[in-house]
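Late entry, written up from scratch paper. The run itself happened at the end of the previous shift, but nothing got recorded in the book at the time, so transcribing now.
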Amino acid sequence: RRRINESARGPATYIAPDAAIEGSLKGKGAYVFCGRMQGDSDIEGPLTLAESGHWTGTLKATDVVVAGTVEGDVVAANRIEIAGTARISGSLSGLSIAVAEGAVIQGKIRVTSGTGPTTFEEKRSEGNQKLAAG
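Output as recorded:
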């Protein structure tokens, strides 16, 4: 299976590292979030929280990649991919969940497909991770 970031179609909406948003984020398409968010999301498409990103609230999207910090729940209709740099204080819920070595999750993990979470070792170099994450 292709990784979430590699399967997104069309251009992504990019939220810069210096951006700070309070409120709710709703939309369709791919989003790459590098800044700070305080609020909830409801995205029809993939949402990537880059290593520099900090999210406080519920992060909900079709597919979710977390490389940054989340204080709240992560909910995906399909897949969740947690990078080794991720720090999450909250629950994860998705059809499938992959967690990289080094990630910190303080909360429950609920895989809605009935199978357990998958662990993986990050194969990309650090430089490529930063490019892919934002």
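The mean pLDDT is 86.
(Scratch paper discarded after transcription.)
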